[in-house]
Amino acid sequence: MATVAGLVLFACTLPGLAQTAEGHPQDLSIEIINATTGEPGTVDRMVIEYITARRNSVADFQPDGSAFTARGVPIISKGKYIVTVWKDNVPYWWSKRGRELADGPVVLHVFDTVTRLEGVSLSGLNLVVRRQESIVRLEYMLQVANLAKPQVTANGYPSTFEIALPRGATEIVASYTRGPDPTDIKVDYSGEKCGLSVPLTPGQNQIRLEAVVPWTDGMEIPVGANLPVTSWSVLASPEWLEVGSTDIEENDSEQVQGFRRFVGFPLESGESVTLRLNSGEQAAGPEEDLFTQEAPAANDSGAEQDAEAKGDGSQLPLIFMGVVIIVIIVAVRRRRS
Question: How far apart (Å, rounded) are the C-alpha atoms in residues 41 and 239?
C-alpha cells in the first residue's frame, strides 16, 4: 500500500518538475490597442517564445477580443521572451522579460493596414556595385521611412513599392530586418523594375536586396523608385571601375578602402537616373607607357657608357704591341752596328 501511494505521489510531481525547468505556469493578462485609432484592437494570432540558445515556443494561440488571458504559460522571471502578434498578416514583435509578462497587464500596440504610400519615402538608398570578371553584383541597402499620419502600416499587393533594376538581373533575393531575425521578402521582377511585398510599419524599415547582372562595358544601371528618394549613394569596386552620370558626384572625404564612393541628388517619386559603368583598366596605361619610355633612355645611356669603356680598353693592347715592336727593332739595329 505504501509502495502504491509513493508511486502515485511521484507521478503527480512529474508535471511540476517539468514546469519548474521551463518556468512556473502563470496566467498572463494581455491588452491590444489599435495605435491608429487609439481604440481597443484585435489580433489574429499570438506566439510567446522563451529565448535560450534557440527560440522555444511556450504559447501559440488565437486570442479572442482586445483584452484576454493567456493561461498556464510557463514563465521564468529573469528569462527573455519574444512576443509576436499578427494583424492583417503583418507581424509585430516585442522583447519582454518574464517578470514583465507575469506582472501584466501587457499592453501591445498594432496598426491599421493600408495600401497607399502617403508619407512613405526612401530616406536612404545605398547601392554597392562589385565588378567580378564576367558579372556585376549589386547590393541595395534600403531604409524606408513611414511617417504617415495617423500611423499606419503600408502593405500593398502584389507589391508594396518598386525600385528600378537593370535588365537581365538574376539571383534576386530580398529580406527585411525588423524582428529578431531577417525575414524573406517576395520579389516581383518585370525586367526593369522589382516589386517588393513587404509590410512598412511606422518609423524606419531596413531592407536588403541583392541581384546579379552580366558585365558589358558601358552597361547601364538605373536608380530610382516609385517613392521619393531623399538620400542615396554608390560604392563601386574595384577602384578603377568608372561610374558615369551627371546626377552623382564623387565623395573623396568619406571613401571606403577598395571602393570609390559617389553621392547622388534627391529623386522624386517615379524619377530615375542612369549610371553607366566602364572598365577603368586603361587608366593604368599612362603609367606603363611612362615606365617603358624612361627605361630605354636609361638603357641607351648605359649602352653609350659601356661602349666608351669598351672603346678605351680595346685601344690599350694595340698601343702596347706597337711599343714592343719599336723596342725590338731598336735592339736589332744596335747589335748589327
Answer: 54
Residue 272: its pLDDT value, please? Answer: 95
According to DSSP H, which parts of 25-67 are helical? none
Structural domains of the chain sorted by starting position, each given as residue range(s) with its CATH number in brackets: 22-110 (2.60.40.1120), 120-282 (2.60.40)
Which residue in the block uniquely carries the three cell numbers 525600385? 163
User: In this structure, are residues 26 and 20 in contact, taking their beta carbons and an 8 Å threshold?
Assistant: no
Phi, psi for residue 18 in degrees, rounded to 5: -65, -40
CB 25 within 8 A of CB 15: no
Distance of CA 51 to the CA centre of its chain: 26
For residue 318, count CB atoms less than 10 angstroms from its CB and return exposed for 0-12, middle for 13-18, buried for 19 or more.
exposed
Alpha carbons 120 and 272: distance in angstroms, whole number: 17
Q: Which residues pair with 28 in a beta bridge?
A: 70
Predicted structure pTM score: 0.75
Give me 149's grid cell. Answer: 499620419
| Angle made by CA atoms 219, 224, 227, in degrees to the nearest 5 | 165
Residue 213 and residue 140 in contact, taking contact as beta carbons nearer than 8 Å: no
Question: Could you tell me how many residues make up the chain?
Answer: 337
Q: Are the C-beta atoms of residues 169 and 211 closer than 8 Å to each other?
A: yes
For residues 143 and 268, give the distance between their C-alpha atoms in angstroms, rounded to a whole number: 16
Cell 549589386 belongs to which residue? 138
Alpha-carbon torsion, ordered 87, 90, 96, 100, to 10 deg? -10
Distance (Å, rounded) from C-alpha 263 to C-alpha 127? 10
User: pLDDT tens digits, residue range 210-262?
Assistant: 999 999 999 999 999 999 999 999 999 999 999 999 999 998 777 788 899 99
Q: Within 13 A of 238's CA, how many CA atoms are on the CB side?
A: 8
Q: Which residues pair with 57 in a beta bridge?
A: 49
